[in-house]
Design a protein that fits this description.
The protein has about 700 residues and is α+β, with helices and mostly antiparallel strands. It folds into three domains: about 1-35 and about 470-490 and about 545-695, no CATH class; about 40-215, no CATH class; about 230-410. Helices cover about 40% and strands about 30% of the residues. Strands 13, 14, 15, 16, 17, 18, 19, 20, 21 and 22 form a ten-stranded antiparallel beta sheet that branches. Strands 8-9-10-11-1-12-24-23 form an eight-stranded antiparallel beta sheet. Strands 2, 3, 4, 5, 6 and 7 form a six-stranded antiparallel beta sheet that branches. A hairpin with a 2-residue loop joins strand 5 and strand 6. Helix 3 runs antiparallel to helix 6 and helix 5 (about 85-100) packs antiparallel against helix 6 (about 110-140). The longest helix is centred in the middle third of the chain and has 46 residues, at about 365-410. It is elongated and about 130 Å long. Residues about 1-30 have low confidence and may be disordered.
């Protein structure tokens, strides 16, 4: 524990005294700041103003535009700061007017500001209208003397005003990440209760309120755009296979030809794509002679000659497949090039008829040609319908088979799938002629299920390959909640982490060993062993928190982990065994933090072809105002609580050590299925990060 000892010995330093004073005061300066919910609008405004920083670039109309932008900023702040519903509605109405004014120009910077404003305002306007609609619907109900009915109406009003309304105000007004997350948790609790009541007893006003709230606070946390080339390994298949096909007693020999196309088809309710291919189908008509004899017009020819026929279809098949959350829809289409081959041979008993026909100019060639012409008309009339019938039969059977497989393996509900413990809810699929889009709420099965993002993704240019936009905070929170619900994690009580001092060049993974569910006596023994061994390693013990951590992004673009009920045991410096600087004898310090914040900055370098390089740094560690430190000698039941000042020294030393520790990791890309990461953006204050992937080249 040399790092803590070094810190504790420098208490006379003026600089450290200032740091410790801030620590003892609750480390308020390190609390992660929350970006305003309208940060994207302000960023768009500042981008315009920054472009005018040089006088030569400042247009003559700049003063007027600045006044309009300032009005937008003022109305946004009024909405965020006000605790009065009426004032907030007035601010929304004012913002709607300002958005209209911004939309009267073709100037792109102003339109960018307008687009950001509309993305922020529209879901809030829908939610405000839904709240007003529910209140108006309750008050419009006829008078009743039934006290239970009246009480139910009052509960609806109280829920809309207090449960949901107060959480909404706290969410918009939050200035710290912790406050924003606490308000969001309250919103989701209210939304969960609302959705339960809607399922139990549907009512249009409550359903509209639930939909509006979900539209604001349960956005997809993953949004993927992929071009046709990237999805080709999964979608581009030959529609036709060579081989015999038997149907209605006839055997056709099908020969697959060249592929003629593959691509996306515009669709608003699924990913639609087409496959097209040439093929040739040759079908001998084995009963052609009997069919001729059964036809009134062909009967005389059948008495004079024996006929054989073969149909030839040089066709192109176009199959359009639409992938929806509910399954596959497949539709075939054909372009036919039909020809008929007909042969004849004089029949043994038709000599007289042939002679008479010859006198009339109808020799074998002319009769055969006429039969061929009529047969071709028949083929051209029948084959397209039969091909479509056969195609639909085959496709229907294949579709049912594939949909059954998908449902048994993946589909678990309406617009929801699960694959190996990974859950995706609220799936939405669509396609344009160039790109397929997939979005949903991603997380792990278990807990309360995946939780969506509370902000839509910022606009981004679609890059070649696969562009994945991920709302990192909600995704990590959902993953953590899913892990906490698993039996193997529930059985986990604590972990002892032993960190060794390694020689230069040793693999970093060899520096850390972890052992689960270690009692205090075993941990204390490990601390003694470390001291006896000359501090070649240090041992920590971390108790499993009572609830999963939550993750958000702060105004600086740092990822913030909110860890609840964090308890860490660390070795005390040897000189503290009889009491010293902190006042109480201690061999082990127990750091108890009801809510700790850890803020990370990170960068992922994907320029090289090898592993991704992750460089991260702990920017802030805030143990929280309620944090305390217990001094333990040998019996944890006799732990002594240190004073706020003494505890602040210990917590400050821990935070200083964490901030000094660089994190450099190589991330293996070999497990990514057929793709390689090309770029990773910085983390946006809205919580979104963008990853661009491309297919691996052999």
């Amino acid at each position: 524990m040399h790092w803590m000892r070094a810190r504790l010995r420098t208490t006379v330093g003026q600089g450290l005294a200032i740091v410790l004073a801030a620590t003892v005061a609750g480390q308020a300066l390190a609390i992660a700041p929350a970006a305003p919910t309208y940060e994207a609008v302000e960023r768009a405004i500042q981008a315009v103003k920054k472009s005018w920083s040089e006088p030569v670039k400042r247009p003559a109309t700049a003063e007027g535009w600045e006044a309009l932008f300032d009005a937008v900023s003022t109305a946004l702040k009024a909405y965020s700061d006000s605790g009065d519903d009426n004032a907030r509605l007035e601010a929304l109405e004012r913002l709607d007017q300002l958005a209209g004014a911004l939309g009267t120009t073709t100037w792109k910077p102003a339109l960018d500001v307008r687009d950001a404003l509309v993305r922020w305002a529209e879901p809030r306007q829908r939610l405000a209208q839904a709240r007003l609609g529910l209140v108006a619907s309750v008050r419009a109900l006829p008078q009743t003397a039934d006290q239970q009915v009246q009480a139910n109406r009052e509960r609806w009003l109280a829920f809309t005003r207090d449960d949901l309304g107060r959480a909404l105000k706290d969410y918009e007004a939050a200035r710290t990440v912790a406050a924003r997350q606490a308000a969001l948790d309250a919103i989701h609790r209210a939304l969960g209760a609302l959705e339960s009541r809607v399922k139990e007893r549907p009512w249009p006003p409550s359903s509209a309120l639930a939909a509006a709230a979900s539209g604001l606070f349960s956005n997809p946390n993953i949004d993927i755009a992929a071009d046709a080339k990237s999805l080709a390994p999964f979608l581009d298949r030959d529609p036709v296979q060579s081989g015999p096909v038997t149907r209605k007693g006839y055997v056709s020999q099908v020969t697959a030809g060249a592929k003629t196309g593959y691509g996306f088809v515009p669709s608003d309710d699924g990913i639609a794509f087409y496959l097209s291919q040439y093929y040739t189908s040759v079908t001998p008509i084995w009963d052609f002679q009997s069919r001729m004899a059964a036809d009134p017009q062909g009967r005389r020819a059948a008495k004079m000659y024996s006929f054989w026929a073969t149909s030839v279809d040089n066709a192109e098949i176009i199959i359009t497949t639409t992938i929806r959350p509910s399954g596959l829809e497949i539709q075939p289409d054909y372009r036919h090039g039909i020809s008929a081959q007909v042969w004849s041979q004089p029949a043994a008993e038709g000599a007289c008829g042939r002679a008479i026909a010859a006198l009339l100019g109808m020799n074998q060639d002319r009769i055969t040609s006429k039969v061929r012409d009529e047969t071709l008309k028949d083929f051209q009339a029948r084959i397209p319908a039969e091909a479509m019938e056969e195609g639909l039969e085959r496709i229907t059977a294949e579709k049912e088979k594939r949909n059954a497989e998908l449902k048994s393996r993946f589909v678990v509900g309406d617009r929801a799938i699960a694959v190996r413990g990974v859950m995706v809810n609220s799936i939405a699929l669509r396609s344009t002629a160039e790109t397929a889009f997939i979005s949903g709420v991603l997380g792990l099965q278990g807990g309360e299920g995946p939780r969506g993002a509370d902000a839509p993704p910022p606009p981004a240019t679609i890059e070649p390959g696969v562009t994945a936009r991920v709302h990192l905070g909600s995704l990590l929170s959902s993953v953590a909640a899913g892990l906490f619900d698993r039996p193997e994690v529930r059985s986990f009580k604590n972990a002892m982490v032993v960190i060794k001092n390694l020689p230069p060049g040793a693999p970093p993974r060899d520096a850390i060993t972890v052992k689960q569910n270690v009692d205090f006596a075993e941990y204390a023994k490990k601390v003694d062993e470390a001291r006896a061994g000359g501090s070649k390693f240090v041992a920590l013990r971390v108790t499993r928190p009572s609830r999963p951590p939550e993750f958000r992004t702060d105004a600086r673009g740092f990822l913030v982990a909110l860890v609840h009920d964090l308890v860490i045991d660390v070795p005390a410096p040897p000189q503290e065994a009889k009491g010293g600087l902190v006042g109480a004898p201690a061999k082990i310090y127990r750091l108890v933090m009801p809510l700790a914040e850890v803020s990370f900055s990170f960068k992922i370098d994907a320029k090289n072809a090898g592993p991704l390089e992750l460089t991260a740094k702990i920017e802030d560690f805030t143990p929280g105002a309620d944090a305390k430190v217990l001094a333990i000698v040998d019996d944890e039941s006799k732990a002594a609580s240190l004073s706020r000042f003494s505890g602040g020294l210990i917590l400050g030393a821990l935070g200083g050590r964490l901030r000094m520790q660089p994190i450099n990791l190589g991330l293996d890309q070999s497990r990514l299925p057929g793709v390689v990461v090309r770029s990773v953006s910085t983390l946006d204050p809205s919580g979104w990060i963008r990853v661009n992937l491309e297919r691996k080249t052999l």
